[in-house]
């Protein structure tokens, strides 16, 4: 760890303030179309800046598709939507080789994964081999078709949606694969006054046009700047304490959680919690991470990384309840 004396927090702060100037512009642009889903917009930005991917859970009709489409328009990036169905094949996602009779040769037909923003709609509707094709592309940021390997466009953000209502005829994502999503965000219904505005806009049939206010280049530059956000050793220790408390609760005076947790967060949890905290500080236009940044993102980063036992299910205890207990117990630096 670098010595704080050698780190010029003031210059980092000034740099981050310059680099993050577009955040307000982007949020304003998205708010033209998306009403009231502040949490979802913030999480999309964290995923984009942290070079991660997002799993969104919410009932149909909460503007999930609209949100990522609007973000793509505002960033001037390419957008594609894959509707996951039980008969989908991996080639429908990544692309395939097509025989060209004129040239007596195979040509590449790239799939919808080749875009800056990819919406994987109802990911739990497709069989395992399709899910793993998508997840491999998310992890490796590249796709192999035939003998050729293709690097995916940058920035590359996958937003997968899951419908918590219908579970019949679905293929739940295995725990190990869910871990590849940086954030799992649960979206709730809008407030009544927000929904009134949504109804009015839809009845009018007129939506404001979303303009491209940020370039892809600016986003790539911001992704680099996020890494420069200063994180003190105390904050690193705080993040590790939270993650380790999901694995060994008895070490943190939380022995009552032991029978409720089947497995704790992986090292990916620690990495993503640190990255998401830096992204949150960046969005708040700050060049350093404070404990509140960690607490703001901890639920979205860890809720899908903690396995709960049958005992916890029987007592109606969720991973969010477990995170709550951990956050309340662990000392804030």
From TrEMBL:
The keyword Manganese does not apply. Keywords: ATP-binding, Nucleotide-binding. The keyword Ribonucleoprotein does not apply. Signal peptide: none annotated. One of its GO terms (molecular function) is ATP hydrolysis activity. Residues 53-183 form the ATPase AAA-3 domain. It comes from the Bacteria. Residues 259-326 form the ChlI/MoxR AAA lid domain. InterPro entries: ATPase_AAA-3 (IPR011703), CbbQ/NirQ/NorQ/GpvN (IPR050764), ChlI/MoxR_AAA_lid (IPR041628), P-loop_NTPase (IPR027417). Belongs to the MoxR family. PANTHER family: MAGNESIUM-CHELATASE SUBUNIT CHLD, MOXR FAMILY PROTEIN. This is ATPase AAA. It comes from Bizionia arctica.
